[in-house]
Amino acid sequence: MQRVLIIGASPKPDRYAYKALKMLQEYGHEVSLLAPNWETINGLPVYRNIADVPEPIDTVTLYVNPSRLGAYIDDLLSLKPRRVIFNPGTESDEAATQLVSQDIEALEACTLVLLRTEQFD
């Protein structure tokens, strides 16, 4: 089991962030959520700031536009997760370079595919 933070969480069932939440829970992972617009999603608290997220976090999975990553990068570096997954559409060479420079794995992949193919851990 890993502790996973979803950045860009959504309560909308058609969103991949929501699908990731459900699948991560199905696979037994402990999930924390971060988003600016929600108080809770499926009974879980939604944090507005990375600094408020209970540590440690093993994996961060991103569901935000790359143009918004700059607002999170310093806090991500302070959080020191083992890895950050850039889901399709969230890729950022600049953010990935900053993470790797701090020994944080930056992985361009789909969380859902990693889970289904048993490559998440």
How would you explain this protein's 3D organization?
Residues 1-90 form the CoA-binding domain. This is CoA-binding domain-containing protein. It comes from BD1-7 clade bacterium. The protein has 121 residues and is of the alpha/beta class. The protein has a single domain (3-116), classed as Rossmann fold. It has helices at residues 16-26, 73-79, 93-101, 111-116, and strands spanning 3-7, 30-34, 40-41, 44-47, 59-62, 83-86, 105-108.
Topology:
Elements: E1 3-7, H1 16-26, E2 30-34, E3 40-41, E4 44-47, E5 59-62, H2 73-79, E6 83-86, H3 93-101, E7 105-108, H4 111-116
Parallel strand pairs: 1-2, 1-5, 2-4, 5-6, 6-7
Antiparallel strand pairs: 3-4
Keywords, please?
alpha/beta, 121 residues, globular, Rossmann fold
Residue-averaged pLDDT, rounded?
96
Alpha carbon gap, first and last residue: 8 Å
Low-confidence stretches: none
Overall number of structural domains: 1
Q: Please tell me the CATH architecture by its name.
A: 3-Layer(aba) Sandwich
Strand sequence of the main sheet, in spatial order?
Answer: 3-4-2-1-5-6-7
Give the % helix.
25-40%
Strand content: 15-25%
Q: Give the overall shape, derived from the CA principal axes.
A: globular
Q: Give Rg in angstroms.
A: 13 Å
Class by alpha and beta content: alpha/beta
Q: How would you characterize the largest beta sheet?
A: 7 strands, mixed
Q: What fold name goes in the CATH topology slot?
A: Rossmann fold
Helix/strand order? EHEEEEHEHEH
E-strand count: 7
Helical stretch tally? 4
CATH class wording? Alpha Beta
The CATH superfamily label reads: NAD(P)-binding Rossmann-like Domain
